Amino acid sequence: MTTPTTLQPAPVIDETVRLLTEHYIFPETAEQLAGLLRRRLAEGAYDVGGAEELAPLVTADLQSVNGDRHLRLKHHVDPVPPKRGAATLDAMRRDFDTSLGGAPRVELLDGGVAVLELAPMLFPLEWAAEPLSAALTLASRARALIVDLRANRGGDPDTVAFVCSYLLDERTHLNSMYWRDGERSEQSWSLPHVPGARFGGSKPLYVLSSDTTFSAAEELAYDLQQLGRAVVVGEPSRGGAHPCQGWTVHPHLEATVPVGRAVNPVSGANWEGTGVQPDVPCGAADSLDQAHALALARLTG
Predict the structure, then answer these.
(1) What's the gap between Cα 233 and its chain centre?
(2) pLDDT tens digits, 72-119
(3) The model's pTM
(4) Is a pLDDT exceeding 70 seen at residue 269?
């Protein structure tokens, strides 16, 4: 009788290969990866005791061709639902409930400079609109604003546009996404109206980044930087510009596959592989003090 810890790697690899081939934004790379995974399976590289051991091995191989950090086989301790994206949403919901909806900190520093921390994610907008609107409205009265993304690991592009809408005065083209499905492009714009009060597009704005800042959080920093709206302070971010979807391929394993890529209207490029490069480089631990000093100097200069 098969024990719960026994894992048959072949069905997991077969399904991961199918998902890559059908959905990955770069079809030629998908073919390379499919060949690599099949070869590694045949060599016995995935003959391990359980899902927890298999996940990092396959993830390392998935990221070995082009370094795409959104390509992953993720292990989940609790069994994950089979519905596409359900594993990610379940984990997100727990984080949402324990982080005040993704805005765990709003603080007023000396000199009328506010800090708004957005962490650990930019949650789906249907969840996050109310807490983010409350936090951004509260911060709108500050003379300068520091948005702390150092511990933010990504999330929803629609939530990026929502946050940007509070930090700009006019409806603005922020980003475009190219999707493999249908070979279509989709533009992202800030909103013409927001609930609550805007911080606006003219007061000093700083964004803190670290080597943990990832995905949609990077888009938020990059969009504001490319528009000349914000000064990014801290470390280069992790470098993931490909929105992904997740599929359950085993009761404890989820394959995440990028299905699109970002194209910024200002740069014509994105932050994939390079990360968002800070305007003021410094260690992440020092970036809040650095941004506060910059804000005070600008307000008193």
Answers:
(1) 18
(2) 999 999 888 787 767 777 778 889 999 999 999 999 999 999 999 999
(3) 0.88
(4) yes
Residue 40 to residue 58: CA distance in whole angstroms? 9
pLDDT of residue 4: 47
State pLDDT tens for residues 280-289. 999 999 999 9
Residues 6+ apart with CB under 8 A from 268: none
Q: Is the pLDDT of residue 5 over 50?
A: no
Task: Please state the three-class secondary structure of the chain as a single string.
Answer: CCCCCCCCHHHHHHHHHHHHHHHCCCHHHHHHHHHHHHHHHHHCCCCCCCHHHHHHHHHHHHCCCCCCCCCEEEECCCCCCCCCCHHHHHHHHHHHHCCHHHCCEEEEEHHHEEEEECCCCECCHHHHHHHHHHHHHHHCCCCEEEEECCCCCCECHHHHHHHHHHCCCCCCEEEEEEECCCCEEEEEECCCCCCCCCCCCCCCEEEEECCCCCCHHHHHHHHHHHCCCCEEEECCCCCCCCCEEEEEEECCEEEEEECEEEECCCCCCCCCCCCCCCCEECCHHHHHHHHHHHHHHHHHC
Residue 234 has a CB neighbour count (10 Å cut-off) of 30
pLDDT at position 153, please?
95
Query: Could you identify the residue written with the tokens 């800042």?
Result: 213
Which residue type does 275 have?
A: G
Q: Look at strands 231-234 and 280-281 and give their pairing.
A: parallel
